[in-house]
TrEMBL record:
Keywords: Membrane, Transmembrane, Transmembrane helix. The chain crosses the membrane at residues 104-126, 185-206, 265-286, 292-311. It holds the Pfam family SpoIIM. This is Stage II sporulation protein M.
Length: 317
């Protein structure tokens, strides 16, 4: 194909591409245009490569180069910084990931919260069940922490406790997640086990009349910490799905595909737990009146539940 025929055949497509770029810049877009844009951009790149190879002249190559540059900017956009990418994931993509498999979320929520609530209520109506789970050492620890005079920590102690809460609580999320490798049995065990142990602790403080101090302490960070556990369970069961039900893919391929989803869910759960540790270290033990902590805790539950239910809706994908 000589230069004249090349221009005759291809120039109408270039003009249409330029008009499309102009329309997209003015926010005039439709699904058909967006669907065709990548293939038309690739064809333009091929034309530029051919024009350079056959030396059709600077006029042609410069025209094509400008169009390719405009198309590239529209197609790929400006690169996000790592910080903005992380913020988009946490605020938009993460709640979408949770809602994308709502059935699995509700299963994990039931497995954790059912024993948790049962053992919490048992503290008032059947304390023998609670005392069978909470040993003497844990009872003494709860009594000294919430039954005696309020101890005000200094800033250094707050930082130390922040590190301890991160290590302990994020570790719970990772154990729940890692249990998915054992065909999901480990994840199921840790969800139920944590529901029982945490519920028993809540039930014991009700039975021992330690509730006011304990619930004021846990109110601020409880929503983040407790809701992170079912999300970590989702991550573990995603891994198990790749092993147990690979579908038409090989088991290794299905596991790799599920691992990406699982790691994203785990990252979101770990972030929630990290935030809970921050609140627990620097707010929960502060000498703020109990009534204020209860109000903040109630608002925290509303924010967390609304975030998981509505976060990312309406945002561009």
């Amino acid at each position: 194909m000589n230069r004249r025929r090349f221009l005759t055949v291809r120039q109408p497509d270039w003009q249409r591409f330029a008009a499309t770029v102009k329309g997209l810049r003015r926010r005039k877009r439709d699904d058909a245009t967006l669907a065709e844009f990548p293939s038309r951009f690739r064809a333009l790149c091929q034309d530029l490569s051919l024009a350079r190879h056959r030396r059709y002249g600077l006029g042609v190559t410069n025209q094509l180069n400008d169009l390719v540059q405009d198309g590239h900017n529209l197609l790929y956009g400006q690169r996000r910084s790592p910080l903005s990418g992380a913020a988009r994931f946490l605020l938009i993509d993460f709640p979408r990931e949770v809602r994308a498999d709502a059935g699995l979320f509700w299963i994990c929520t039931l497995l954790f919260f059912a024993p948790f609530l049962l053992l919490t209520l048992a503290g008032a109506v059947a304390p023998e069940w609670v005392l069978a789970v909470v040993g003497p050492e844990q009872r003494a620890q709860l009594a000294s922490s919430f039954g005696g005079p309020k101890i005000v920590r200094d800033a250094e102690s707050d930082v130390f406790m922040f590190g301890f809460y991160v290590w302990n609580n994020v570790g719970i999320d990772f154990r729940i997640f890692a249990g998915g490798i054992a065909f999901g049995l480990g994840t199921l065990f840790f969800l139920i086990f944590n529901g029982i142990t945490l519920g028993a602790a809540f039930g014991y403080v009700i039975h021992a009349d330690l509730g006011p101090s304990f619930f004021a302490f846990t109110a601020g960070h409880g929503s983040l910490e407790l809701m992170a556990i079912p999300v970590a369970g989702m991550a573990g069961l995603k891994l198990a799905q790749g092993i147990i039900a690979p579908g038409r893919s090989s088991r290794s391929h299905a596991l790799r595909a599920r691992a990406g989803q699982a790691v994203r869910l785990l990252a979101g759960a770990a972030t929630m737990t990290f935030m809970a540790a921050f609140v627990e270290a620097f707010w929960s033990a502060s000498p703020v009146p109990h009534e204020v902590k209860y109000v903040v805790g109630a608002l925290g539950w509303i924010v967390v539940l609304c975030f998981l239910a509505f976060g990312g809706r309406g945002a561009a994908r």
